[in-house]
Automatic annotation (TrEMBL):
InterPro entries for this protein: Alkaline_phosphatase_core_sf (IPR017850), Sulfatase_CS (IPR024607), Sulfatase_N (IPR000917)
Family matches, as PANTHER family: N-ACETYLGLUCOSAMINE-6-SULFATASE FAMILY MEMBER, SD21168P
GO molecular function: hydrolase activity
Record organism: Sphingobium psychrophilum
CDD domains with a match to the protein in the record: G6S_like
Name this polypeptide is given: Sulfatase
Homology family: Belongs to the sulfatase family.
Signal sequence residues: 1-25
Domain Sulfatase N-terminal: 37-377
Keyword annotations from UniProtKB, A to Z: Glycoprotein, Hydrolase, Signal
């Protein structure tokens, strides 16, 4: 009997070998899974908490629906909190030190490959609609997109905005670049971009192919201007500004001088955009300008459902950077504080990702490009530095198993907005270390687990000495570019930049009190040497230290 079984098994193996893999394949008429369509909705300058399900009174029913029926990532962050560098990171899967788009001042795109090009090669149709904001202020179509609708630079909310009365009377309007042709604007920017995107979905694409739609809103970038239908929305909504906005000794304790000086500047709560507009009014306009974005999202979701595409389409809702509304006396972004680096992120894909889940993974803008390629079954190119979060979103692995590594942040000083210095930061296990380049100022260290608002700087706390030393080294090691070099780039300066201060506002901040010392101290040279427990002991004893 055993011999008979052996003979039968041998015959089966031989048959499979002769017939090849096709003998074991599924029948030719077996249904194949449909490729996943993808829609990426990018908002400009949207705070991590500017969504109705997080902020009482804020009306964002469609964004809320995404979160209710998808996966919300509360710890999503950007590796550079500024429009152009962050957008370049999203498109290339590379950090600013490698893609080279370091500020908003016309950084070159030369040599960069944008991930939609790989999607095209995989059979996807791709469309870009909205704000590009890179590459020498041109709105020309970029490689990787079959459909193109964009505008130069920051663009404008309304067709006649930023035009003189004479030009308006002559028929001039703000322009769009539609597939290489100049077209006059006709409506409010969020509505107009959505109209173009919907027209492409409904009529302009080859419906036999999967699609990738990149809808890149101008909203809610400053100065936020809502359409007439939302001009009075939120008039009675109480706006709660952060407690750290107050210029008090308690709030200023442990903060660098540049932070205290910036509060009276273009990007400061005491002189916002060189106006005297109340912050509460600016926040209301910000929320009002978000409402058309939420409407736009509702139109997209309705289209997907009506056309039975909701079961094989992923929608990712994201922002290019965060935004501050007075935290530590600051507005805008650029810095490494939580409201600047954290962004809203929701992934909606019925049947692919779980419903109503809050996932604590620290997803970076760096991880978006590899994820979109992963969804299309395209291997990650060698130059991409991020990591696909798809298995985390699907719930196949948890955030600890995913483990993309430390969150490393970089921002490079811009001459046009000189208030914020070059900033480097690293976060590991919810501890954040921040250092500044080229300024005479404090470092910062925060335990985000116990101090999420970053109010207690631990940089000189002896109990955190080892952590400070470890993170300093890790930050330097990881800031090397792909060639192993540590480079601080800059672009050509053409004016002084926005340097003015409110004549009635606070004047320059003083140095930290403990930096004022007596002459001829034995410890006067100690801080030329690396920090260590031995050095700390010598300092405490008032002795000269030599390693």
């Amino acid at each position: 009997m055993k011999n008979a079984r052996r003979a039968l098994n041998a015959a089966m193996i031989a048959a499979c070998t002769l017939l090849g893999p096709a003998a074991l394949a599924k029948p030719a008429n077996a249904p194949q899974p449909k490729p996943t369509n993808m829609i990426f909705v990018l908002v400009d300058d949207l705070r991590y908490d500017a969504m109705g399900f997080l902020t009482p009174g804020l009306q964002t029913p469609n964004i809320d629906r995404l979160a209710k029926d998808g996966v919300y990532f509360p710890n999503a962050v950007v590796t550079s909190s500024l429009c152009s560098p962050s957008r370049a990171t999203i498109l290339t899967g590379q950090t600013a030190r490698n893609h080279g788009v370091v500020d908003n001042n016309n950084s070159s795109e030369e040599g960069l490959t944008f991930f939609p090009k790989y999607l095209q090669q995989a059979g996807y149709q791709t469309g870009f609609f909205g704000k590009w904001h890179m590459g020498f202020d041109t709105d020309a179509p970029r490689p990787g997109f079959d459909k193109w609708v964009s505008f130069k630079g920051q663009g404008a909310y309304f067709p006649t905005e930023q035009l003189s009365p004479e030009k308006i009377a002559a028929g001039d309007r703000q322009m769009l670049n539609v597939d290489g042709a100049a077209v006059k604007r006709t409506g409010y920017i969020t509505d107009e971009l959505t109209d173009y995107a919907m027209n492409w979905l409904e009529k302009g694409r080859d419906k036999s192919k999967p699609f990738f739609l990149y809808l890149s809103h101008k909203a809610v970038h400053s100065d936020p201007l809502p359409p007439d239908r939302f001009k009075t929305q939120y008039s009675d909504l109480p706006i709660k500004l952060p407690a750290s906005m107050a210029n008090t000794p308690e709030n200023n304790a442990g903060k660098p001088m540049w932070v205290r000086n910036q509060r009276n500047s273009w990007h400061g709560a005491d002189f916002p955009y060189h106006t005297n507009n109340p912050m509460t009014q600016q926040v209301r306009d910000y929320y009002r300008t978000l409402s058309p974005v939420d409407e736009s999202l509702g139109r997209i979701l309705a289209y997907l459902k009506t056309n039975h595409l909701d079961k094989n389409t992923m929608v990712v809702f994201y922002s290019d950077n965060g935004f501050m509304i007075g935290e530590h006396g600051l507005i805008d972004k650029r810095n490494a504080y939580e409201p600047s680096v954290r962004v809203p992120m929701i992934v909606w894909a019925p049947g692919m990702v779980p419903k109503g889940v809050t996932n604590p993974a620290v997803v970076r803008n760096l991880d978006l490009a590899p994820t979109f390629l992963d969804i299309a079954h395209v291997a990650k190119p060698a130059q991409m530095e991020g990591k696909s979060f798809l298995p985390v979103a699907e719930g196949k692995i948890d955030e600890k198993a995913w483990n993309p590594g430390d969150f490393v942040y970089e921002y490079y000083w811009e001459w046009s907005f000189p208030q914020t210095p070059t900033t480097f930061a690293i976060e590991r296990d919810r501890v954040k270390y921040i250092q500044y380049h080229g300024v005479w100022d404090l470092e910062e260290l925060y335990d985000l687990k116990s101090d999420p608002d970053e109010m207690h700087n631990l940089i000189e706390d002896p109990k955190w000495l080892d952590t400070k030393i470890t993170l300093r080294k890790a930050l330097f090691d990881q800031l090397g570019n792909s060639k192993g070099a540590h480079v601080v780039p800059y672009t050509r300066k053409t004016s002084s930049g926005l340097v003015n201060r409110n004549i009635d506002g606070p004047h320059a901040a003083d140095f930290p009190a403990d930096w004022y010392v007596q002459p001829n101290l034995p410890t006067k040279m100690n801080d030329l040497f690396a920090d260590s427990p031995a050095k700390a002991k010598a300092e405490a004893e008032g002795k000269t230290y030599h390693p």
